[in-house]
């Protein structure tokens, strides 16, 4: 390959510039490496010790407390003269109060008495149709005054209000019958439950048809 004179000069100048740049870069790297490790002096970081001033602690016992007021002295009950009077005439006749009674237990004898009765829940089907009626129940009043074993004696209309009447009777509460001071069970207790739809035109003596 033949090079012209101009190309030879340009190649030579480029080579010289590259050589000078390489040498300069080499000396620059040497200078940076010669710097070495950086030593830290005491002025870079300074740690200061903080000391709290001494103070005398104040105990709660040394604090002034408000003075408590002294309770008022106990008030003594007034004194009464319990000496019987001497001018009473004891020779006057006194009424004779001689009570005679039958010795019994803790409670006085008596029959069972209803304390409260829970109103029955009116069946929705009967209420919507305007049906009224009643149920005669027979049950046992226990020693505790509760109701046990209720049965339907008769009902009007038949079977319409039986379940509602039985549920209501089981919530009744009685004062139990007492014999010789002790509560006793009472069987065969009859109770009629009446189902009446409220109406301003009905009096308190109103009873549905077929009910006593």
Task: Explain what this protein looks like in three dimensions.
The protein has 212 residues and is of the alpha+beta class. Helices cover 21% and strands 20% of the residues. The chain has 3 helices and 7 strands, in the order H-E-H-E-E-H-E-E-E-E. Strand 5 (177-179) and strand 6 form a beta hairpin. It is elongated and about 155 Å long.
Topology of helices and strands:
Layout: H1 5-34, E1 113-116, H2 124-129, E2 133-141, E3 147-156, H3 162-169, E4 173-175, E5 177-179, E6 182-184, E7 186-195
Antiparallel strand pairs: 1-4, 2-3, 2-7, 5-6
Q: Which terms would index this structure?
A:
212 residues; three-stranded antiparallel sheet; 20% strand
Whole-Å distance between the termini?
146 Å
Range of helix content: 10-25%
What's the total helix number?
A: 3
Helix and strand pattern: HEHEEHEEEE
Strand percentage lies at 15-25%
Can you summarize the main beta sheet? 3 strands, antiparallel
Number of strands: 7
Question: Roughly what is the average pLDDT, rounded to an integer?
Answer: 78
Categorize the overall geometry. elongated
- Computed Rg: 58 Å
Strand order of the largest sheet: 3-2-7
Query: Oligomeric status of the shown chains?
Result: single chain
